[in-house]
Write a structure and sequence with these properties.
The chain is an alpha+beta fold. It contains 16 helices and seven strands. It is 52% helix and 9% strand. The protein is globular and about 65 Å long. The active site is at 124.
């Protein structure tokens, strides 16, 4: 059969385009072609540029090793000493004093106590000293495309990262560094948190969670506020069980009973609270045996930042220690 020149060209073009779309030609990582197609379709970004970014990312075995041994797997008696050290507390007090005016202005704006903003950056990055050594692209490619147990979550984070506008990136995407999980900046925001909660507080047209303290502080405060922080509300308090206290297990930290109900089940508060306040109960392994904690809405909000109750309690106790240090040193 004789082919015309135009038909021959159409066949060649079709074969060429088909080859470009084939994973065996286009993919450096499993699932890359589909991911690029989704981002390009939804954002209008250039597929070639997206592929170039992903081609430059590498699977990192050290990231897969790190995610298999999170600190939150430790019991409270071992977890607490990591974050409640004299140095972290004292440095937090000094950090608060140094940035007091900015912290208190932002705290008032968002209804979040400044010591909790400081405690978050203290726990996450030791007040900005350790924001992570991994390339964010490497981390999210590794966990999103090579880590089946949590691939759905991390693939979505990778997709969001590739979709973010330049004004929310804080620099060229392939140069950003962060944690092994792909969190970045002083407050360790994941891409979806940057998209949904990060704030351009200094009004320079860019969100910079690495070098702009107004953006860093306001983004943490906004995260808390948008997740339901109750201004002036309690966070957590010790509970004392009696000998007949009802065993209680909880799936998360969301308040689900009136405090009076827990009192009726044998758990006495060691301080007074407003009648009818909703609470939950955490039982943790302390150095001297079980510790029982009433946890309230603001504790639950902290667990939206990190779902571990150990993390939330460490942030709470660090914030309390920082606030105490600031008060005691306010009139030297």
């Amino acid at each position: 059969m004789k082919l015309t020149r135009s038909r021959t060209f159409r066949i060649f073009a079709a074969l060429f385009l088909s080859a470009l779309g084939s994973p065996s030609f286009a993919e450096t990582h499993p699932g890359q072609a589909q991911l690029v197609n989704e981002v390009a379709r939804e954002t209008g970004k250039n597929p070639q540029q997206l592929n170039a970014l992903l081609d430059g990312a590498s699977k990192q075995q050290s990231i897969l090793d790190a995610i298999s041994r999170p600190a939150e797997a430790k019991p409270w008696k071992d977890y607490r000493p990591i974050f409640l050290t004299d140095k972290r507390i004292n440095d937090g007090v000094a950090f608060y004093r140094e940035h007091r005016e900015l912290l208190e202005r932002i705290g008032q704006e968002y209804g979040v106590p400044p010591e909790y903003i400081v405690a978050i950056v203290g726990v996450e990055t030791f007040y900005g000293r350790n924001t992570g050594k991994y390339k964010v692209l490497d981390a999210l490619v590794t966990l999103g495309l090579y880590y089946p147990p949590r691939a759905t979550f991390f693939r979505e984070q990778l997709k969001v990262l590739l979709s973010l506008p330049d004004t929310q990136l804080g620099g060229p995407l392939d140069t950003l560094t962060g944690s092994y999980a792909g969190a970045q900046g002083w407050g360790q925001f994941m891409p979806s948190s940057i998209r949904d909660f990060a704030v351009d507080e200094d009004h320079d047209g860019h969100i910079d969670l690495h070098d702009s303290l107004p953006d860093i502080f306001a983004s943490v405060a906004n995260y808390f506020a948008k997740h339901g922080w109750v201004t002036g509300g309690p966070v957590a308090a010790r509970a004392q069980p009696d000998g007949a206290a009802k065993p209680i297990s909880v799936k998360d930290s969301k308040p689900q009973w009136a405090l009076e109900q827990l009192e009726a089940w044998g758990y006495a508060p060691l301080q007074s609270f407003n009648p009818g306040i909703d609470t939950s109960l955490q039982t943790l392994e302390g150095p001297n045996g079980p510790e029982y904690w009433f946890t309230f809405q603001n504790f639950y909000v902290i667990t939206r930042y990190n779902r571990s109750p150990l993390y939330a309690l460490a942030v709470h106790q660090l914030a309390e220690a920082i606030a105490k240090g600031v008060r005691e040193g306010s009139n030297p």
